[in-house]
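Protocol step 4 of 6: record predicted structures for both targets in the notebook before any analysis. Target 1:
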Amino acid sequence: MRYIIAIIQPDRLDEVLQILEEKEIHLVTVTNVLGRGRQKGISEVYRGHKEGGRLLKKVKLEIAVNDEYVQVTIDAITQGARTNHIGDGKIFVLDLKECFRIRTGEIGKIAIG
């Protein structure tokens, strides 16, 4: 089992969710977040003074999948989020030690769905 975290551009969310749906990956948590990467935010000029280090609006996707869906999930996110411009985002894949479904008490791969 793996826990996939993706940070993407907000305007790419609908495309990513559509592709995930087509790949039968339905269980997704989405959060609006702020952050910056190598581009270090957007430099703006305000009243003649350059301000840097702004935090950019991003979207964080969190998806728990069984091992056979890891590459499918990564490919779907990449396909939907890629614009070939700086700031497209990142995908992190973590080992998921355990998963519990609260309603049924199921544990492990079955609980992920």
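Target 2:
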Amino acid sequence: MKTFKYLTLLVLLVIIAACGKDKNAIPAEKTKSGVAYEIVKKGDGKKVETGDVVGARLKYTVMRNDSTFLSNFDKDLAYFQVQEPQGYGDPSEWLLLMNQGDSAFFYLEVDSLYRTTEPPGYLQRGDIIKSTVVLKEAMSIEEYQTKKSMEERASAEAEMGKLKEALARAGISDYNETEEGLIYKIVREGKGKNPQNGDIVTVHYVGRLFNGDTFDSSYKRGEPYSFTVGQSAVIKGWHLGLPYLKEGGKGTLYIPPSLGYGAEGAGSIPPNSPLIFDIEVLKVENAAEQSQKATAALKSWLKKNGIRAIQAPEGYFYIIDKAGSGAKPQPGKKVKVHYTGKLLDGTVFDSSVERGEPIEFTLGVGQVIKGWDLGIQQFPVGSKGRLFIPPSLAYGSRQAGTIPPNSPLIFEIEVVEAE
């Protein structure tokens, strides 16, 4: 009986100690980079390894005022591939300590996260961020790809069913199907070639909803639209559907939401809307051939306008109108440049001069078009001049804002500063 009393007292003391524990206490155990952590729930699933894909819920809370500034606890799981940890605060380091089914807290010191920069306004020096991680799934990259493929196939089949129902309600039955869930109908067989990935196509089109509302029309604007198949920023349904239509032909694409604007919608297009596009293919051009023509057009333009430019071995042309006294910019170093970009017809498509602020970038690392990475090296600091860049060293067969595919570009530049 006495033993039972002692045991009861011991249990009571443990409960009192647990209740008195500071919920904001930082655990002593730390990761290699110095992040304090504790595993609060152990799972019995797969141990996470580098290269695995995980599905997790994460929440970041400022302990000072218990305010959460980032969380997906009320959303879908966040999926990402675990990489070799890159230092303090990298979630990959945390996940490599966990098994599927684990829940853990990680405590980040703001002063360690922002050693050389100021933290954002919702954080203060001395703050501790409590990161809650709930690891729901862990799998190899192969397993993840299989999972995604199965989910996409199931989604495509479901959307195809809905699209067919919409077509049946509209009285449309004569059409073709693709594996990706696209439905198309040839209205007029063209006599030209079918566009392939990389080809530039010029089309007229009308975009409609299944209720009959027209949301876009190149005919109404009076201007056809050109883009590069497989590359330009049009919906996936266009990239998949255009190769079925020949140059000179007409067709209709019936596009499910997953190949259109999805759950987000766009402009007057509601979320999860299947779309109808009536398309007339006006022209199909080979991108490589167009690039060669554009380069030839640039040379011809220079000759016609009496511009004696230096041709670099890489294929761009340049003129130094005013030589600067500084050193030439070097690859891997930062440089500041003022510029005005023009098409051959004189149209200005961009200008740092108009904005009143030069562009700053690291030379030779792909932050700008290749013609700039190569050409800017010819201009000592303080120089003013012009770069004439063929499409192969600019945006190629891609549409870039208001710059048409395969456009030679002219840049009036001034090298303001360089490291």
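Step 5 preliminary note on target 2. Confidence is low (pLDDT under 50) at residues 1-21. The chain has three domains: 24-139, 148-285, 288-418.
Proceed to step 6 after PI sign-off.
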